[in-house]
Amino acid sequence: MTGLPERVRDRRPLVHAMTNYVTMDWVARGLLAAGARPVMARDGAEAPQVVAVADALVLNLGNWSPALQQAMLEAGEVASRHGIPVVLDPVGAGGTAIRTRAALELLERVKVTAVRGNAGEIMALAGDQGLVRGVDAAQEALGLRVERAARAVARRSGCVVAVTGPADLVTDGRRTLAVRAGHPLMAQIPGSGCLATALVAAALAAQGDGAPSVAVVAEALLWAGWAGEEAARKASGPGSFAVAYLDQLGQAGPLPAGRIAPPLSDLLSLYVLVSGATPLSVVEAVLQAGCRMIQFREKHLPLPVQVEAAARVREACWRHGALLLINDRVDLAQAVGADGVHLGQDDLPVAVARRILGPGAIVGATCETAGEARIAQAAGADYIGTGPVYATPSKADAGKPYGPDVVRRVSEAIRLPVVGIGGIGIGGAAPVIRAGGVGVAVISSVVGAPDPGAAARAILDEVERAKEGVLA
């Protein structure tokens, strides 16, 4: 299959962009640079006729009015009848009640294929109050809340939802992808989000007869963000950046690999801890069962033996697309090329580990209280493990179990993903998820099971069912 830029140029889709006056010229220029063809009829008498011959429709609530709302409803209904992808940009939803109601009405009456908005807008569509300042939202302050809101909107409306910001998130309610691309200069161009919405529409149109998917929308956002990165290399400021951005959209070849992946909250669904004594066949079995996060935890073997054992686990994780974290030892993580570390309260401080390993590493921390979790979050942790939830034989110094409520207390205090740890087996995972956790960390219930792969699959299925129940 060819890359997205080539597909758009080959297909040259006609994108009917009912976008706002402030960004209309920019969106038209961007679509042309990308290889698509823009048309921008906003009149209620004309718009339904134009969309009937278009390949995709964009409904953008910027410069909203009652007349435009009616025109969008009529155009959207025509697009739905013709099987044309419709992309909604709920500009300002959450900022005013009128815009929120307008976006919800479009979602209810039009068969929307995808929604592209910022964090506050998507939160508003989910029924949360949202956090909207003009057209911006503090996504980094929302964390897991916005991810859950996006999944809820996607499941309720039967569409793909994309949340754009410092990191983009794309979901259909079941499958979720994170997109790492973009540059701060993009925020200084009026209409960068509007153009991203239009590129999503062009991508869906260029996909052909296949069902719209999370991957196509994610690829469109990667294209938009990567063009910004490349343009920033050539620009001296916002003015030259805008020109370079259009040039880059017109010149884009293959998009960079490795920028689209499941979010950390999904990778943490089942988090298996292994040691240097764990047979490699057990590691392979749990990875084949769907586990995507392994922690190497070894307290007794000589360091050279630990390096050899951890390197074998690292190779297995590479083969299965899983991540490997090292318990406690930053030096061991560096030695074997692990993806990060997990630290206890008596280990190297989170901030020091972050400084040594850099911003791309994953740093987790064990915290038993909300206060400890807030400190770890401020220091740069990516996720929190909390417990013990239940009594555990795997950690001799584990204290009295707190029950699933410890997950609730910690998850409500921070914005990071929270994993329950301690004594969790089949039947014990669902309460952790219902309490606000994104996953469970396990040792003996999987590694010590007669069939580790089957045990891992059973717990992962329980976690996934519980997550669906939380969103229902």
Secondary structure layout:
Blueprint: H1 4-11, E1 14-18, H2 24-34, E2 37-39, H3 47-51, E3 56-60, H4 66-82, E4 86-89, H5 97-109, E5 114-117, H6 119-125, H7 139-142, H8 144-157, E6 160-163, E7 168-171, E8 176-179, H9 192-206, H10 214-234, H11 238-251, E9 260-261, H12 264-267, E10 270-274, H13 280-288, E11 293-296, H14 303-320, E12 323-327, H15 330-336, E13 340-343, H16 350-357, E14 362-366, H17 370-379, E15 383-386, H18 405-413, E16 418-421, H19 429-434, E17 439-442, H20 444-447, H21 452-471
Parallel strand pairs: 1-2, 1-3, 3-4, 4-5, 5-6, 10-11, 10-17, 11-12, 12-13, 13-14, 14-15, 15-16, 16-17
Antiparallel strand pairs: 6-7, 7-8, 8-9
Structural summary, described in words:
It is a single chain. With 472 residues, the protein is α/β, with parallel strands linked by helices. The protein has two domains: 4-261, UDP-N-acetylmuramoyl-L-alanine:D-glutamate ligase (3-Layer(aba) Sandwich), CATH 3.40.1190; 264-471, Alpha-Beta Barrel (TIM Barrel), CATH 3.20.20.70. It is built from 21 helices and 17 strands. The strands form two sheets. Strands 2-1-3-4-5-6-7-8-9 form a nine-stranded mixed sheet, with helices on both faces. The chain has an eight-stranded parallel β-barrel with strand order 10-11-12-13-14-15-16-17, surrounded by six helices. Mean pLDDT is 92; it is low at 130-141.
